[in-house]
Structures
1.
Amino acid sequence: MNNIELKRFWEKVKEELTGSLPESVHPWIYSLEVSGYDKGILTVVTGQAMARDWLRKNHSEQMNSILAKISKNSNARIHILYDDKAAKQLKKESEKIHKKEVEAQLKEQAMENLSRMRSEVNLNLKYKFENFVVGENNKFAYDAAIAVAKNPAVKFNPLFIYGNAGLGKTHLMQAIGHYILFNNPEKQKVKYTKTDDYISDFISNTRKTNDSVLNMSKFNKKYTDIDIILIDDIQFIESKSKTMERMQQTFDTLYEKGKQIVITSDRLPEEIPKITDALASRFKRGLMVELTPPDFETRLEIIKKLAKDNDIPAETEALEYIAKHFSKNVRELEGAFTKVCAYAEFNNREITLELAREVLRCKENEKQITFEKIADVAAKFFEVDIKDITGTSRNQKVSTARQIAIYICRELMNLSFEQIGEYLNRKHTTIMYSHEQIKTKVSTDKNIATAIREIKQALKVI
């Protein structure tokens, strides 16, 4: 009987044994390893001395009877041996299993704690460091966030993360919260809040008439009786003087108590309209890190990870096509991928380069957008000289063309106000003002909205 035949024979015997012997001894039967079969003697080994002794004493006759029936040999016998090597291996495997069970229990407990606190801190469970794709555009910010998560309030306090929409500011911020909660869920109190919610909460408490002192006391405790505060989109505090005063008090209380403060914004503190110098200086007290649009390699890695995490098969060429044509931000990139996936699912098609082209209809030879190109198209639209746009002319038509060029440049190219200011040889505050002017008018002034739409069409971006 060769090894394969022997193992098959033993599996058949073992099946009969577990079907006949008490369930309490089944684990011992499963652990038996067949060693040989010669002249009706089936030798099996175990690493458990108790198993050998118990089976020999209490079930030897029944085991031999089952073997005799299967082998069709009335003299067949099962011989159980204790093996020291098997005992060591069994102990090693048992310790390994126990370690895995303990780790699983700890992980489960941590996840329960995290889920339990999710409603309190309002974190999105998908925003973790493990899900964040690191590239040259965000490595410094990522490293800073990791450092803060591992050692809150030690070096970088506050941590101010800024950059345009869709680049991962909220993801990094919430990843800090997740890391702290997951690794130390009981000792660290984390609170995530959007600035809009903070403002609404503050206004709501100031308007309550029953007991204003008590209301504000509860409000202060809510935002200062914590260890880590994560404040998202601080730019929305613009022009709200009383809320700024309260925010400054919140900041000072936390900072003096040695608590970690993390803030995100789509711009630098001094670019937030009508922000007080005192509050802006506090935001700049720690470390300021910028997120910029990802390069092609990073965008491709983001798309590949998205496909892998969702178990979506796709041609590499299709993913490269998406990564190439959606460079503005991660949100736009993921949206394009989702659109292609949806079309593929609805039409029962594979995700190929041909499908991606068909769905997204990107222009393969689209020229790179530059400020010069935007300014040139804006000048032609308003029938002015491009030199006037980049010059000092205060003519109404020129000023409007210049402001719209600044607005479109900010929207399409993700340049900072300083970068646009360098091109126009103007202060960033002037650029910021021009941008805000058009941003305000675009939804109320049909002429401005039409101009922006037609300039974008001329640029072939819509």
2.
Amino acid sequence: MAELATIARPYAEALFRVAKAGNLTVWSEIVAEMAHLASHPDVAALSRNPKVSDSDIAATFLSLMKSPLNAETQNFTRMLVENGRISLLPEIATQFQALKNAQEGAADAEITSAFPITDGQVTSLLAALERKFGRKLNPSVHVDNALIGGVRVVVGDEVLDTSVRAKLQQMHVALSA
């Protein structure tokens, strides 16, 4: 993985420099959509097919995009295809988001709950988490019934696990020690 990150870094930084001149939020959405599209198995298979020309791959990829595309996005896509780097888009998107978060003094928060939580509960939880972590958080909420109860929050390399499953695991370790 480190090799992919190393290869993707210059692309993410160049794209971020272009995005800073425009609307960073719009660019972030476009890059996320491109990454999602590039990770689709059919798109990956098309990009690896030696019988399909680079221009056809780029045209197909761009036609699958739902977001309105500007010249920079089209050129970036063509350049990735020509260099055989379309598969790097998920890593490019990850690094782009990290650069965006660093610029905004924010961080991504992955919130996993045992049960579906309402928007009001997310807002309340987010306010408490922002005070705890001391920065603005961009939440993504998931449901995992295996937690049994409670929530698990991952912000960067920090984990706050208040789930019942985590507490049961702690009790198991304490009792078996």
3.
Amino acid sequence: MNVSRREFIRKTGAIGLAAGGLLPSWDAAGYSRMAGAGERIRVAVIGVNSRGNALAQNFAGQAQCEVVTVCDVDSRAIEKCVADVKKIQQKTPKGEKDFRRALEDKNVDAVVIATPDHWHTPAALLALQAGKHVYLEKPVSHNPREGEMLVEAVARYGKVVQVGTQRRSWPRVREAIRLVQDGAIGKVHFGKGWYVNSRPGIGTGRATAAPEWLDWDLWQGPAPRTAYRDNIVHYNWHWFWHWGTAETLNNGTHIIDLLCWGMNLKYPTKVSSLGGRYFYRDDWETPDTQTVNFQYGDEATLLWEGHSCSGKHIEGGAVGAVFYGDAGSMHISGGNDYRIFDKGGKLVGETKSDIAINPQNRVNPTQQLDAIHIVNFFDAIRKGTRQNVAIEDGHQCALLMQLANISLRRGKTLDIDPSAGHILGDPEAQRLWSRSYEPGWEPGV
């Protein structure tokens, strides 16, 4: 079977293929009214140096939300975020260094967690235990065991946890996934995703006293203590296994989630990953170049490529995914758009995003689209609306990339139990399923 343009338009219902849009041309005030007014959900934002500041402003812009507290171990970040939020909601939030004080506040209904990865699950568990709903940036966990703990905690405490894989809420991405699932390109057996950037080196860190504006002990939190070095905070921690999770979970989780979602895949039977740190001689530990293969028995194969430092785009974009079906293919870019091709590679349908997106903007590339995801979080809290990303979905996509990192670090292919995603027959690999914690900081359900 070969999909034609006529057939594609029939299957899509001619949605927006020419000039029609699924999203209005919003300004900040416009999209803040999308959920309407009412009693506001009071939110504390934890980790507001960069991405967290952007989220704090986005939450503050929603009519049904008030940001009451911003928390960070960096006093400069608190000061800036307090000022930024005040400009939007005309109310000044409190600033707290220790987020645990916000969890004690009965006036806080929900928390937004945008900390470094090693804090994601421990902070979310504390929030759930304090009776708060949680908006949790991806990845949901630093290691597989933490993800399992978080799934257990959501079931136990009954609060809403929305995961920050925001593409699940973008209208045209959702439409693209529905088309793939409905057979618009036939049966899909192979999916490919990628992320490309031109990140600079991070040099060799110098051991020194932590700056006066930073609480280094609280920044480390559950991670075993190390001496402060001047090339870790605020972003380069991503490239150290002690705190970060590599480009696989920094950006790859978004794309592997799309592929699994579109192809209705859960856990693979084999995971194999290769790569290394090739571009600079510095302190960066995780790979800057990495390929990952996920084998789903004889059903399907997924491939992800990470190029942190090479810069050469794939399929015309820095971020994207392609589904390859027996009747055609579907390309979803880094934005809210997609293209569909027939079996011969001819373009037969296309949507274009109304909103400019820079997927390499590490702070706030998709503010207007992310507002839809935030409103879905609020609706789940207030109305019991189904979440666009359940915690099980967030754990699944994180676990896949964590398995990729374990395969890379072990230097071998992993055999996986497809019913639960557990590693089979490799005790050495299994040791990376969890991590050690600073005594007294161990997370628990």
4.
Amino acid sequence: MNLARRGLPRARLSRAWQRGFTLIELLITVAILAMLAGGAMTFADLAVQRSHEQELRSALRQIREGIDAYKLAADANRVRKSADESGYPPDLDALWRGVPDMADPKREKKLYFMRRLPRDPLADPSLPAEATWGLRSYASDADNPQPGRDVFDVYSLSPGLSLGGRPYREW
């Protein structure tokens, strides 16, 4: 419909057309918003990865402290070990299921080194906690960790890299 026929003056007619946005302005605005949203998603992904790394660091610390406590108890003759054993736990379950306290004459009391076994936050959530960790025995090399008769250390089985670029397996 022709606005000039309605009796609007020319100055008012030109202002009416200037109030809206052009297609180019709208496209630029949408492009800027898309870039900002993409940056926010990248930031969210980094925050999630950082959170998983903190959980992994905490879980490794808990398990390693439990292994060290077990070794100290074995050296203090509170955990049964034979002469050919290292004194480290035979498996991760011994840390949270408990072992008989050799200081108790009736052997009714148990020693517990952890409340529960934490899981690797980077592992498949359908796996049980004990299956999420790689095990290194006392007899194996640090460069090539292998399971064995005892658990000297644990590591993540995740093939990924940390935010610092170091493989999770080396933590």
